[in-house]
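Progress narrative, Year 2. Work on Putative restriction endonuclease domain-containing protein from Aliterella atlantica CENA595 advanced from sequence curation to structure prediction during this period.
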Amino acid sequence: MLQYDPLQYLPSATELPDSDDTPVDNEFQELIPGLLRSILALLWKDRQDWFFAIDMGIYYSYTPGVRPTPIVPDGFLSIGVPRRRNNKGRLSYVLWEENNIVPLIVFEVVSQTYGGEYDTKIAKYTQLGAPYYIIYNPDYSRRDKHEVLEVYRLVDGVYVRQPGDPVWIPEIELAIGTGQGNYQGWNRQWLYWYDRQGNRYPSLEERTEAALQQAEAAQQQAEAAQQQAEAAQQQANQAEQDLQSLRAKLRAQGIDPDTL
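Result:
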């Protein structure tokens, strides 16, 4: 009996465009999700069941004869998929090649050109079924009459705003929130991951800087200890010299210092 495999009739990632060819407005649309990904790479360095993409097309449906159009978030995080699919890396995220695992979180960074983050994209991500939709609007929130950070959770087919900053995401046991920090030479507000107690996880640059500062502090402490040891030795030598001088004076006066 012939076995029917529907996947063989669906296009693969190599046959699909990897993005929608829409250029980003500025570099922060890539740097902001890039920072989140780099911190996860440190936190989850031993895990191989996650994938974080930046400006990559997501294909979740296909109609024969119709050119598919991907959804392209500024970033997204999937859990339960191979971190590396092959030596060349993913060209796009195709649900039927990912065991139909929908990204857990999709991210949008609002830019100068409004991209429908608060309306049309909400509808798209609802259709996709992403459990969390995060909108970060550091520069145009007043224009758009929204908060700088808005985290939405899909509840019964509707995105519900989650209060707070940072916001806890139990599926990954991390919170996401805003914070001031340094990344690739930019000292400004960024999105960061936080632990349950609200402590921010630093970037690699911040970890490196902290390690250098600790090393410098340790070196300074060692040098200070060495100087104190040298000063103590000099005091001991001086005391010995003073003692010998006193003994000599006593002998010159006919007094044996050892009898005192």
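The chain has a mean pLDDT of 85. The chain is about 30% helix and 20% strand.
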